[in-house]
Every structure is written in structure tokens, then in C-alpha cells.
Amino acid sequence: MKIILLGYMGSGKSTLGKALAAAKNVPFVDLDVYVATAEKMSVQDIFATKGEIYFRKKETFYLQEILQREGDCILSLGGGTPCFGNNMELIKAEGNISIYLKYLPKSLAKRLAESTSRPLLKELKKEDLEDFIRKHLFERNTFYTQATHSLAMDGLTKEESLQQILTILSNYSL
């Protein structure tokens, strides 16, 4: 079984994914790290030198590769992964459990305010960040809400978030 964490950038997918993998004693895969390793360049460099379309095609290829592997794993996606190509259909395939880590735009803006490594944010002024996030969430909501489960993250600590996810997963045989 694949447990897939999705949500906007900065929602804690990688941090919670690692903690969840440790709690469930299964491998953890961060899709962005997987793509960067396979392509032998950072996501930022792929965006800068080859463009977003190239990145999205590779992202879909590697997503499919990971999902077709035997065995359980925790997989954290990039924020835009569910929104391109047939990625959401791959994510929703039988045997996968997806969890949308949902934050309010204001909370995400606060979490991302100091980020300098996000390709989509590098040219953005801080005062425009919340509106940018609000627009993106509006566009991506159709995809994010197709997840098997949605978890409201505002106000939760990492430990509380992990407990909520473990409670969701207790309904499944893993």
C-alpha cells in the first residue's frame, strides 16, 4: 500500500512523511528528491534550465515508477504534482491512500515567508505571497480535494498531525 501525502508547498508533507514512515516502519520517498536524484540536478535547476513542462513530465514518469513498485511506502508529493497530466488518477488508483494536508492561505503564507528555495516563489514579494497562495489553492482545490482523506492542519503541532494521520490509517490494514 502507498500512503501519499499531498498539499500545497510548505504544508509539511516531507516532515510528516518522514515521521509517518518511521512510525509505520516503511520506506519514505520524497518525490522532489527522487526526481532531483534521478535527473542529477535540483528541482530549482531543472525549472531554471529545462523549464516547468520538462519537470512536470519527468515528475509524472517518476511518480508512476514509484507507484508501480512492490511494497508499502510513504510518498510525499510536490505541491503541484496532483494538478498535472493524469497524476491524480495515478494517485487515486486502487491500493493507494492519499491524504490532503490542508492549511488556510494565511497560515501557508506565514510558513513560506522565509523560503528562498521554492522556484515558484523566488521572484514574489512577501506582501503578495498570501494572494498568490490563495489563487493557487483556488486552482488546485479541485485536485487536492480528490484525496482519499483531508486533514485540517491549522493549529496542529507536528506530533498532533502525525497522530491524526495515524488515526486515519488505523481504519486500514497496513
From TrEMBL:
Gene Ontology biological-process entries: amino acid biosynthetic process; aromatic amino acid family biosynthetic process; chorismate biosynthetic process
Binding site residues for substrate: D32, R56, G79, R140
Pfam family, one: SKI
Main localization of the protein described in the UniProt heading: cytoplasm
Listed EC numbers: 2.7.1.71
InterPro entries attached to this UniProt entry: P-loop_NTPase, Shikimate/glucono_kinase, Shikimate_kinase/TSH1
Name of protein: Shikimate kinase
General function of this protein: Catalyzes the specific phosphorylation of the 3-hydroxyl group of shikimic acid using ATP as a cosubstrate.
Recorded family membership: Belongs to the shikimate kinase family.
